């Protein structure tokens, strides 16, 4: 029997890349504690997307391994590294317990701890929209609200975490707020601190928000990835060169729209806070302002 499987399930755009960077950087320290941060399941960066995609491949990112292969890789690496526990971190994680093979395999662990990193939904959705537009593999040209509505069910944190709690126990759910120093808070779960600060760079930098509509418009019908990347990068430099007098004037999102989205999730967010954090509210109130683009 193994001791603990830690499943960091995301959400996307909650500092996951920075967390994964730190966990990989401190693999040896984790190993000394008997905890594996897998190398074999990492894809391109330090995230364990190979594990998640084995269960639920997505458009543009096909699965490299079958479910059986992914589980065997983790088993083998834990044996080789002589670890009693493991962290699997991927913001692409589906609800693994829907898979019968996983449901049987995971019984070899004494405990499963599910870690959810969360962020105010409007901030997350705007960051996700940015990611989809800038990614040359995706080349998203849809409207913000089309993307937002598609993601609404997934962003009901209480509903999603409650599903996991039914399988692993409420006491084994950890919720970390993006606004509370998400990387440091996550590392503290494993008695780690932020390492190598002087060499840390911004992981997965965003486009300037003001450039989003420009990128969508000027890359319309562009399928070639290098060409898309060049146009995007040229726009970034163009926007950076604008004088202080050149201000964005087109509205991407109004303050009222932002408020309405956050209000929609307020009750479920507070249920999440009360059930998993013993707090009254998940996110502190904040003002909203129009999001403008060139």
Structural account:
The chain has 294 residues and is an alpha/beta fold. The model has no long low-confidence stretch (mean pLDDT 94). The chain has helices at 16-25, 27-32, 49-55, 67-81, 100-105, 121-134, 144-151, 157-168, 182-188, 212-218, 225-240, 255-277; strands spanning 2-8, 35-37, 85-89, 109-118, 173-177, 250-253, 291-293. The strands form two sheets. A five-stranded parallel sheet has the order 2-3-1-4-5.
Spatial strand arrangement across the major sheet:
2-3-1-4-5
Q: Which regions contain 5 or more consecutive residues with pLDDT less than 50?
A: none
- DSSP summary: helix tally: 12
**Helix content percent band:** 40-55%
Pattern of helices and strands: EHHEHHEHEHHHEHHHEHE
Observed structural traits:
294 residues, alpha/beta, 5-stranded parallel sheet, two-stranded antiparallel ribbon, 12 helices, 7 strands, globular
Short description:
The chain is 45% helix and 13% strand. The longest helix is centred in the C-terminal third of the chain and has 23 residues.
